[in-house]
Amino acid sequence: MELSFSRQHFMRLGLAAGLAGLAGAAAPRLARAQTARPLLSRIKTVTIGAPDVDVIAKHYSSLLNYSVVEEGAVAIDLALSWGTPNSAGRKFIVMQPETGEDAFVRAVEIDQPDGFKAITTWGWNSMEFVVDDIERVHERIKASPLEILGAPALLGAFPTIGAMQVRGPAEEVLHLTVETGERSASILPLPGDDVGRLIITILAVPDVAAVNDWYAVMFGMTKTPVRNDPIAVVNTAQGMPADHGLDATFLSMAERGNFLELWQLDKGKTTDRPRAFGQLPPGVAMASFSVPDLDVIPAPFLSSPHQDESLIYGSNRSAVFRGPVGELVELVEEP
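Given the sequence above, the corresponding C-alpha cells read:
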C-alpha cells in the first residue's frame, strides 16, 4: 500500500484506516517514535510565500524588531527537497528576533495566485509570537499599513494570556501574545525582548480529531482535549456569526513554549490553497521543526534527507513531507 497523506487521501481512508496503514508500513520506526518525549523539539522556522520579500522585511523590521540575517536565492537542491522545483533561484530572506534565538521567519518570493485570502484555505494559516508589552506593539501596528484583525484581548480559555491578530503583507496572519500573570509559571516562554520568538504554528483542518491523532501518532505527542469556542478572526474571515464555535486543540512539543494548534474550519467555506505551479504556496507556506533524529520518524518524505549550509540548517540534515491536509512540514535534524 502506498503511503499518501494528502487531504483527499486522508479523508477518503478515514482515521482508522490511515493510522493502520501508517503503523503497518512503518511499525519498527513507529514503535521507536512513541516515546514520552515528543519527537518535535521546537519550532525552527516559519516560511512565508510572498510576492515581494522586501515588503516583508520592511514591516517585520519596523513592527516586530526582526532583522534580516541572511538573504540570497533558493538553491535547486533545497527547492527540490521542498517538492517545489520552481522555487529554485527565487529570492529569499531569513529574519531573526532581537533576542538572537535561532527561531526564524523566512520569506521566499512567489508568483501570487489570484484570489488568495487569509484563513480561507486548508493548511498553515497563522503563526504566533510571544511579546513583552502588547499595547506598545499594538500602537506601532495601528500606525502602519497592516490590518489589525483583532485588538488586544484576554483569551477565554487562558484568562491571563492576551493576544492580538494582524494580517501580514502576504496574507499571513500574525498572533501576538502576552502573559499578563506570573510569567515564570506560564506555559509561554519569556519574550526576552519587545517581540520574542515564534511559539505556535496554526493549521486549518477539516477534522481536528483525525489530524490530532495523526500528529500524536507520528511524533509521539500528547494530545490535549478539543475545545469548542468562537475564534473571532476565523468567524470574520469566513463570514460566520460572532458566537459560532469551532473545534480547536493544541499539541505540545518537547521544549517549553512550542505548540502546534489545530483549527477545524467549515468545509463549505474553506478550499485548497491556490499556488503557482512548482512554487511554495502563498501566505504561511511551510513550518519547520527541530527533531533529534530523522531516521526514527516514519513520515512520507518527498525526497531523501538533504544537507544545506545556510543559516537555518547549519549543514544539518532536513527533509519535507506533506501532512494530512497537504501542509508542507520540514524537519531539521538537531541531535
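The chain is about 20% helix and 35% strand. Try to locate this feature in the C-alpha cell string yourself.
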